[in-house]
Specification:
homotrimer, 3 helices, six-stranded mixed β-sheet, globular, Nuclear Transport Factor 2, Chain: A, alpha+beta, about 160 residues
């Protein structure tokens, strides 16, 4: 695959990932990950100190599916709309089928009857596995800039 | 045209569309549409229920030109600057010269002497006609996340 | 170089530029410029009237390096995180090794213990020199929408 085709494929992957969350198709979200994977949302202050605590953490696609069940059936939260803006998607390195990639992300949240506010902004540091033909995240680390999030983080980033 | 060239052309089209609004060249804005077209800005709550009411609606380039005349000559509003951030431009399907496309959009508005605030964020669901050589929107549906907009929507999205 | 390769190269350049600021690698920031260069951040109201006053101005890479020293050693400011979202990167014209380019930019700033807010949004009007193999800004004009910035502008845009 040429650099250009790979670049287009990875950008498309990030775009469809954002759509799965913003369109409310949260059931499709775990399918963007490999079976064994690392998913983590952590504040920059912890990331910079190599600490690992953050508001979301999972080590398998099964755990991500649990999260989806929680969102759809267990968690109590007010209805909200989410829009992701993603920029700066970049392929940092390629080793066979494994890519290191990164991006910049802003997530806007709107509660029913409410105005739109910034939920989080930050950078993502990701690994993508091209092994089975379609890209999948084997790792996705979302590093957000604030120490506290304004309100609960219901949906993934 | 290869996928890559088409992708570049469509991204370039979305970029120049945003520039026409953010540069204040609002006269050029209707030229991004075909003669017969559908332009609609609607809240997500209505879009999800297949209701059609929203703050802007037009069915022809002529109606868009009317809007431009209103902006330049009739409407009374305080001066403001607009910046569009667009991401996630994606070609969903291609049928001959007709493309279904979509994007994520954040519009920032700044009143004179004021600070910058988010006017709207959301997704656009569009149809683009390549028939006359340059892309034109035959349909542009802007679905924004909030039920209410903070302040009047003077400029198009 | 084909249009596609050039487009990819320029997008990559804008992305790495944003990373150098958001990753805190501010020492690397001047290396994105040619030795003789023009760097300017100005409010839209001045830009539109062809006035030149704004919160940052430099005419050489040396002056940018001075800014870095100020940020790292002299200026007193509270710690903050920065995220840049960049969209609409477009090559406006090509003349030999010199490109005119532009982009849309939103900068989010987060103070320690604080929430994320918009620091500035606007457009950049740039010149890029490809003469020595890697792109460098020979000119970067950041035109922001507000007349006042909320808080000090410590880091470059």
């Amino acid at each position: 695959m040429t650099d250009l085709n790979l670049h287009l494929k990875i950008n498309d992957f990030y775009t469809r990932y954002a759509e799965s969350i913003c369109d409310g198709d949260i059931e499709t979200w775990p399918e963007f990950f490999t079976e064994k994977c690392l998913y983590r949302i952590i504040p920059k202050t912890n990331y910079d100190r190599k600490l690992r605590i953050g508001p979301m953490f999972a080590e398998s696609k099964g755990a991500l599916k649990d999260r989806v069940v929680a969102i759809k059936e267990t968690l109590v939260y007010s209805a909200r709309s989410i829009t992701h803006l993603v920029s700066g998607v970049r392929i940092v390195s390629v080793q066979g089928d494994l890519l290191k990639t990164r991006s910049m992300l802003a997530i806007y949240q709107t509660l029913v009857d409410g105005t739109t506010h910034i939920q989080l902004v930050g950078r993502t540091f990701d690994s993508i596995d091209l092994g089975d033909g379609t890209p999948k995240f084997s790792e996705r680390i979302v590093v957000f800039d604030s120490e506290l999030l304004a309100g609960a983080l219901v949906f993934p980033a």
